[in-house]
Task: structure prediction
Amino acid sequence: MASSTPRSSGFATTTRRQPRRSRVTIDESFLAETNNIQKCKLSQKRKTLPLCQPSMGGHLSPWPTHTSGQTILCNRKPCSDDYRRRAGSWQQQPLGIAKPRYLEQLENYLRKELLLLDLGTDSAQELRLQPYREIFEFFIEDFRSYKPLLSSIKNAYETMLAHQREKIQALEPLKAKLVTVKEECNERILAMRAEERAEISVLKKEKMNLLKLIDKKNEEKISLQSEVTKLRKNLAEEYLRYLTERDARKILIADLNELRYQREDMSLAQSPGIWGEDPVKLTLALKMTRQDLARTQMELNTMKANFGDVVPRRDFEMQEKTNKDLQEQLDSLRDDYEEVRKEHEILLQLHMSTVKERDQFYSELQEIQRTSTPRPNWTRCEGVVAGGPDRWHMLAQGKNSDQLVDVLLEEIGEGLLREKDFFPGLGYEESVPTFLRFDGVVENKKPTKKDVINILKDAWKERLAEEQKEEFPDFFFNFLERRFGRADAMAWAYTIFENIKLFHSNEIMTQFYAILMEKMSESVYIKQKETVTQLLKEMTNVDSQNEGLLSMEQLSTVLKSSFPLKKEEKIQELMEAGGWHPNSSNADLLSYPSLFTEDEEGQSMPFVQKLWEQYMDEKDEYLQELKQELGLELHDEVTLPKVRETLMIIDPSLDKQTLNSYLSQAFQVPLTELPEENEEKEADIVMQLQTVLERLHMIDIRRRGPREQEPTS
Result:
């Protein structure tokens, strides 16, 4: 009880919180001052301990191994022969000898001090260490030969404890922040779910309105078709009526002419000059007339016998004209029928596609209803992303929700990646890429995103300039060795690999990662760069004033000449990506060099990005057309001659060298060993269709000309 006052003051001295400093080590002068103060306190406390003296007159007690009468002199070397003999004799002594008095006093003192402590407070562990510190100080003061060593041990532990206290105090705010972030995330999830439910209800209403509109359009179409049929029938009836009236009019005109001729003949016969003629002459005339009548009667009988079944020319011409009109009408009806048949087939296909889309939309709606979550409020990310609202607006510009999720994951992954100090090695297995084969731990160099992009650009410059063509992963590792040295090459390889695997939204990192992992051939990247360079050169040639400006008409002409196989809508998409709008005039000028610039993170402008998107879409369409022409399923096997023949059908402009390179990549056969066309061993090369399409998708494959060649004049 008498030692309570100095004990509390000693604890206050040793547990005083030191000010936070930038380095972990404690100043030696400060430690020396603290030790001096503690020595004064302990000297006062030692006076309170009864009989606190070293045993056996300054010698260490060998308890419990030796008897109480045996001691070790301070100047005895532990490794001497005498020391070994004494140790052997001690081992032969029986156990059960009483503890030294000094040890018992220290244990009693420690037990009393621990009983006096209040262990119910937060600082119980700190208080519990104080008696042990005091006991250790007693040892230091009493055993002066070991004092420097014991003091250094004590100082090392005190330094480490101070460092651990500072780390614990630094982590306390993070704990509170973690709870706050968890609550915010829960609130966001609930808000997202509510928004998505509202959006689903709106989509349902819109779907019902569209279905009603489709039904209304179908009804209008049926009514219009019936009206067209009725009008055609009325037109045919009117045409027949007019044709009949025309024929009747012609017959009536002929009858009128015949009556006029008969009237003229009667008027001539009834003229008074005839009755005054000579009877002999009249008799002779009558006789000649009767002879002419008999001859005419014979000719008439002959004509009737010869041409009784002959149709009159007028009737023949009338029938011929009628036949011609009917033939033209038949041809017109056939054309109408063919057109209606094609329209019917198109409508059937449209109906089937509409039914398929309806079923697909219905299944998607069911899936969305099952797994839907509310649309996120992306503005809430402004306070979380480094850089504030301005940087978040720059990252989120022109991106949909799926892309924004990638951006947010990249920001989170970048923070976690920077917290890592080391990467574990992946070993030397076959599945591990060659530039990552290492067993052990490598350092995380922690470069910025801009630094990684600059390294990748330098690697591409060196790759395009080199003459030797080694494998791309081996070249990449050799490039890192040349740039950072052999010692740091593996660390940089792991660091860059983790960065390019994380950032999916950056096109340079994405393309470099795909080429490293052999998901895409480097020829695709090289050909795309050559296309962009050639396009810029064409625009520069058109710019005769060398002002860096082009009209929209000139831009359209350059695009059509550079990409003759692109459709008109594709050209319009490129022009819109370049800054042209349908409402703008063709005389508007465009600064074409700005279409090919890059931002600080290596991202291309929308014009170059649209070029890349169209290239990937055209590649997919080309391979899909190849699959449809083959008429096989993905799991079916296909032979090399069949693929060769199909490629020539869908793309007749393919030259032999390009065709052989496609076949060599698809069937993994070297060009030198590729069999010629119509060879016997050509049919022995068989591969699964899915594997063929995947290998062709990796390389630079594109259409060389239209599918149907135009006939040459």
